[in-house]
């Protein structure tokens, strides 16, 4: 007669661990802060219906799950209607990707830019994974880590605040295929149950194995199962990276089977006994009985154990970029003597920093019946503990603009997670400058860059948010794309410095007189247009400066910071120039007549006794004519005028006109020489 079942008490939780080798069902309840195991059932798969955590034969797995459910219902007298389950860590897919984007090199990199490029890198990894696996199914991103940033092809730890043209990021992202979730749901539904919570096995294990006050540390958890060793890395209280090594307990079992001629099941039994007894007896396939010490057997398998632990250590170092602060080992494969010692050595950690976590060491867990023992039962208990903490929150539903989506609640979810799942174009989150245009200023092309645009705006339930803002069930996320900037409107005075000046002996001299645009003189208020040709008129060179101030190039030199400047040199706005008198040697001055008669003829008539009379500053003086021509500079040898102490700008005039030192003098010329201060 079938026993009538009553509804399951609401304070109980049914956790179901659907593993590769067996199915474990655990009934727990929470009393204050303690999780109490009321009952459990363990049943192995009679056939290989699962491989590496992936369900291959739904019907066969459902049959085993049903037997576990029936046994627990029969013993406890109530109907099991809901179950908490977990997706195997080995079902996760890890993908590396690199994404680069051209950015505005005049603007500092901010968090909005780094968030956007990381989001695009995740989307690229998701696409690569789908192409490689040749699957059209979707993937949940359950975590990612930045490996490196590069700015203009040089590695940089943190690009925020820097400027550059090309920003590149390398990431490693972990995804859970929808098909894994769907197959788990299918088995549970076929067994007459509803899924009330779904988590990941590494998260369930961490929740029970590592106290909350330790989760802010950089910790690692490795679940050494039969076919794979699953790795999870935690930082700042959350699981950030996942990894998998395709070496685990079966490799050790196979080594024992090959060494001692045992079938797989006998070798597995011998392996399990190595951490429980010092002496081991077994019968090989030839019927011969052997009795060996555990130490003798370990010598034969140490090389295999070391290989497995090295692979695990290398994977951890790759995911975490360094050794974690501590490592917790769970799963049956971790119980092999020497496993933690080898793993600690390969990670460069003290041996006490790598430890096996067993059920009997869990402070928050107690039993009402014979307790489960060993690290292999951490996961099923963790599934129940996690379900109590996250009841009914295995998935959350949010709206992104007008699109409704479900997200796997395996970690603290952010706006970026929702946008990735919807395939939102992350590039549209970054503002672009308006179009640039060019103008020609005195023959040089000048680029006028566009105005900065407005960055994207994000709202959660009408309140301002960011890409890294936390999201919750039923949130409405609204995203307004970034807006491109406008073409910049500039006045002529912003393109050309109309007040550009230089200083000469402390006196400020404006060097731009008029500005023409496309052949028309314009004022500073003129709005510059694309392709305008702008020409400035005024003082351009040192020679122009000398000319406007009536400085004789033969008598004066202009200096900049004690360096004499060539007259053809362009003026540099804002520079301070100095002019100084250059001393002349009369014998070195060549006249036009000298050029016509480079060598004196012995037959040339003598000039002895001849002279010319000129009026200098109102005084009549006579200058002996001792050479063919007398020039202006000769006057200084016959007047009292101190050139060594400049008192302003020296003015030279001949018959009322501006004069040069090399001008030829004749009798009756009127000469004026004075300082203009």
What would you say this structure looks like, in words?
There is one protein chain. The protein has 677 residues and is α+β, with helices and mostly antiparallel strands. Among the domains are: 213-359, ATPase, nucleotide binding domain (Nucleotidyltransferase, domain 5, 2-Layer Sandwich), CATH 3.30.420.40; 397-422 and 431-488, Roll (Ubiquitin-like (UB roll)); 492-581, Roll (Ubiquitin-like (UB roll)), CATH 3.10.20; 605-676, Beta-grasp domain (Ubiquitin-like (UB roll), Roll), CATH 3.10.20. It is 23% helix and 33% strand. The chain contains 13 helices and 41 strands. The strands form eleven sheets. A five-stranded mixed sheet has the order 16-15-14-19-20, with helices on both faces. Strands 23-22-28-26-27 form a five-stranded mixed sheet, with helices on one face.
Q: Give the count of helical stretches.
A: 13
Helix share of residues? 10-25%
CATH architecture of the domain at 213-359: 2-Layer Sandwich
Average pLDDT: 85
CATH superfamily grouping of the domain at 213-359:
ATPase, nucleotide binding domain
State which percent range the strand residues make up. Answer: 25-35%
Taken from the alpha-carbon principal axes, the silhouette is elongated
The name of the CATH topology of the domain at 213-359 is Nucleotidyltransferase, domain 5
Distance between the termini: 128 Å
Strand order of the largest sheet: 16-15-14-19-20
How many strand segments? 41
CATH top-level class of the domain at 213-359: Alpha Beta
Determine Rg (CA atoms, Å): 45 Å
The largest sheet, given as strand count, sense and whether it forms a barrel, is:
5 strands, mixed
Poorly predicted parts = 584-608
Protein structure class:
alpha+beta
